[in-house]
Every structure is written in C-alpha cells, then in structure tokens.
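Kindly inspect this one:
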Amino acid sequence: MSETSDALSEIKKMRSELDQHGEMLDALIRYSPIIRDSILDEFKKDKVLSAVYLLIDGVRTQQQITDIMKITQGASQPTVTRKIKELKDQMRVITPIAKDSNSWIYVHNRLGRALSLTKKIRKIHNLDIQ
C-alpha cells in the first residue's frame, strides 16, 4: 500500500515539475521578440497559411480543411498540404494527434498557444474563420 502511495506522490511531483517547465517555456517564448516576430511575419505574408491555421481545431481532418479552403479561399489540395507541412515541420505550431481514414487531424501546439496565434492572426487578416 505504501509503495502505491509513494509512487503516486512521485508522479505528482514529476507532473508539477513538468508543468513548471512548460510555464517557463511559455514565458520565454512570449517574451522572445525574435521567435514571436518571425512566426507572426510568416502569417502576415500569407493569408492562406493563416486561414489553414485557424481551421485546425483538433476535430477537422486535413481533408475537411482542404474542402473548406477550396470554397473559402480557392486553395487547392496541394496548396493546403504544403501549408500544413509548413505549419508542422518548419514553423512547428501544429501537431498531428490522430488519423481518420487517410487524413490527419491536427491541433495547435504549446508554441502556438503561448504566442496567442489564433487571436493575433484573426486581427492581422480580419479573418472570422471558425
């Protein structure tokens, strides 16, 4: 019984330490103008990239995002694929969480949330994408 209690106590300590690390990272990212400005500059230059980012919600598949982008922005499937790749591999502001059939589902990761990208992108391009 005490081993279980000790293990739970240790897990709680590790979780607390992990949370503290995350909070420190968030603060460092928020207050680093080089990181913040370089990421925001990419969104300022590219309205399609911004729209794709806003459509990522942890529920929609890449195919569903593509379908919406075709209608709202006139963007092709290869364009949406390139934008998602850029968001994931270069900018590192989204993370894949699941695969539905043959299409990935993405979420905004800690970096995107720390920089409040959704709010800032909406303001930059006056986009009201839900």
User: Anything to note?
Assistant: The CA atoms of residues 37 and 43 lie 10 Å apart.
